[in-house]
Amino acid sequence: MKPKSKRRFRWRLWLAVLIALLIVGYFVVRALTKEEPLPATTEIRRGEIESSVLATGTLRPKNLVAIGAQATGRILSLKVKPGQQIKAGEVVALIDSTNQQNELNKAQASLRQNEATRAQNLA
Protein backbone atom coordinates (compact mmCIF):
# COMPACT_ATOMS: atom_id res chain seq x y z
CA MET A 1 0.00 0.00 0.00
CA LYS A 2 1.20 3.47 -0.75
CA PRO A 3 1.76 5.86 2.16
CA LYS A 4 -0.80 8.29 0.79
CA SER A 5 -3.49 5.64 0.52
CA LYS A 6 -2.52 4.34 3.98
CA ARG A 7 -3.14 7.78 5.42
CA ARG A 8 -6.49 8.02 3.67
CA PHE A 9 -7.49 4.64 5.03
CA ARG A 10 -6.59 5.66 8.61
CA TRP A 11 -8.31 8.99 8.17
CA ARG A 12 -11.50 7.25 6.94
CA LEU A 13 -11.29 4.67 9.73
CA TRP A 14 -11.04 7.38 12.39
CA LEU A 15 -13.91 9.26 10.76
CA ALA A 16 -16.09 6.11 10.74
CA VAL A 17 -15.27 5.43 14.43
CA LEU A 18 -16.06 9.06 15.30
CA ILE A 19 -19.40 8.93 13.48
CA ALA A 20 -20.25 5.61 15.18
CA LEU A 21 -19.39 7.11 18.60
CA LEU A 22 -21.52 10.16 17.87
CA ILE A 23 -24.50 8.00 16.89
CA VAL A 24 -24.14 5.74 19.96
CA GLY A 25 -23.71 8.79 22.20
CA TYR A 26 -26.84 10.39 20.75
CA PHE A 27 -28.98 7.33 21.56
CA VAL A 28 -27.47 6.95 25.06
CA VAL A 29 -28.17 10.61 25.91
CA ARG A 30 -31.67 10.35 24.45
CA ALA A 31 -32.45 7.24 26.54
CA LEU A 32 -31.12 8.80 29.75
CA THR A 33 -33.00 12.07 29.34
CA LYS A 34 -36.28 10.54 28.21
CA GLU A 35 -39.13 12.38 29.94
CA GLU A 36 -41.89 10.41 31.62
CA PRO A 37 -45.36 11.20 30.31
CA LEU A 38 -47.39 13.41 32.65
CA PRO A 39 -50.30 11.71 34.44
CA ALA A 40 -53.81 12.52 33.27
CA THR A 41 -55.35 15.41 35.17
CA THR A 42 -58.82 16.92 35.47
CA GLU A 43 -60.52 19.84 37.16
CA ILE A 44 -61.68 19.25 40.71
CA ARG A 45 -65.17 20.13 41.84
CA ARG A 46 -67.24 19.65 44.95
CA GLY A 47 -69.81 16.85 44.81
CA GLU A 48 -71.41 13.95 46.59
CA ILE A 49 -69.49 10.71 47.06
CA GLU A 50 -71.56 7.71 46.19
CA SER A 51 -70.63 4.24 47.27
CA SER A 52 -72.55 1.15 46.27
CA VAL A 53 -71.93 -2.55 46.43
CA LEU A 54 -73.75 -5.16 44.40
CA ALA A 55 -73.47 -8.56 46.02
CA THR A 56 -75.50 -11.62 46.88
CA GLY A 57 -75.58 -13.25 50.26
CA THR A 58 -77.61 -14.11 53.33
CA LEU A 59 -78.41 -11.60 56.05
CA ARG A 60 -78.66 -12.88 59.60
CA PRO A 61 -79.88 -10.72 62.49
CA LYS A 62 -77.65 -10.04 65.48
CA ASN A 63 -80.62 -10.53 67.81
CA LEU A 64 -83.83 -12.36 66.97
CA VAL A 65 -87.00 -10.99 68.54
CA ALA A 66 -90.45 -12.55 68.20
CA ILE A 67 -93.21 -10.00 67.69
CA GLY A 68 -96.87 -10.90 67.80
CA ALA A 69 -100.31 -9.42 68.21
CA GLN A 70 -103.03 -10.44 70.66
CA ALA A 71 -105.66 -10.13 67.94
CA THR A 72 -105.83 -11.21 64.34
CA GLY A 73 -107.06 -9.16 61.44
CA ARG A 74 -106.12 -6.99 58.53
CA ILE A 75 -103.57 -4.25 59.26
CA LEU A 76 -105.12 -0.83 58.63
CA SER A 77 -101.98 1.28 59.16
CA LEU A 78 -98.40 1.01 60.40
CA LYS A 79 -97.32 3.57 63.01
CA VAL A 80 -93.55 2.97 62.73
CA LYS A 81 -90.96 2.99 59.95
CA PRO A 82 -88.54 0.13 59.20
CA GLY A 83 -85.48 0.36 61.46
CA GLN A 84 -87.21 2.70 63.94
CA GLN A 85 -86.69 1.86 67.62
CA ILE A 86 -89.81 1.41 69.75
CA LYS A 87 -90.57 0.94 73.44
CA ALA A 88 -92.65 -1.70 75.20
CA GLY A 89 -96.37 -0.98 74.95
CA GLU A 90 -96.01 1.41 72.02
CA VAL A 91 -98.62 1.05 69.25
CA VAL A 92 -96.94 -0.38 66.17
CA ALA A 93 -99.96 -1.00 63.91
CA LEU A 94 -103.74 -0.61 63.85
CA ILE A 95 -105.62 -3.85 63.15
CA ASP A 96 -109.14 -4.03 61.67
CA SER A 97 -111.34 -5.26 64.53
CA THR A 98 -114.59 -5.72 62.56
CA ASN A 99 -114.59 -9.53 62.99
CA GLN A 100 -113.91 -9.30 66.73
CA GLN A 101 -116.62 -6.63 67.13
CA ASN A 102 -119.13 -8.86 65.29
CA GLU A 103 -118.22 -11.81 67.55
CA LEU A 104 -118.67 -9.59 70.62
CA ASN A 105 -122.08 -8.38 69.38
CA LYS A 106 -123.18 -12.01 68.80
CA ALA A 107 -121.99 -13.04 72.26
CA GLN A 108 -123.82 -10.09 73.90
CA ALA A 109 -127.02 -10.89 71.97
CA SER A 110 -126.76 -14.54 73.02
CA LEU A 111 -126.22 -13.45 76.64
CA ARG A 112 -129.32 -11.20 76.57
CA GLN A 113 -131.37 -14.02 75.03
CA ASN A 114 -130.18 -16.50 77.68
CA GLU A 115 -130.95 -13.99 80.46
CA ALA A 116 -134.44 -13.43 79.02
CA THR A 117 -135.04 -17.20 78.80
CA ARG A 118 -133.84 -17.64 82.39
CA ALA A 119 -136.07 -14.83 83.63
CA GLN A 120 -139.03 -16.42 81.84
CA ASN A 121 -138.28 -19.82 83.35
CA LEU A 122 -138.02 -18.36 86.86
CA ALA A 123 -141.30 -16.47 86.57
TrEMBL record:
Any single Gene Ontology cellular-component annotation: efflux pump complex
GO molecular function, one term: efflux transmembrane transporter activity
PANTHER family hit by this protein: MULTIDRUG RESISTANCE PROTEIN MDTA (PTHR30469), SLR1207 PROTEIN (PTHR30469:SF33)
Protein name, entry field: Biotin/lipoyl-binding protein
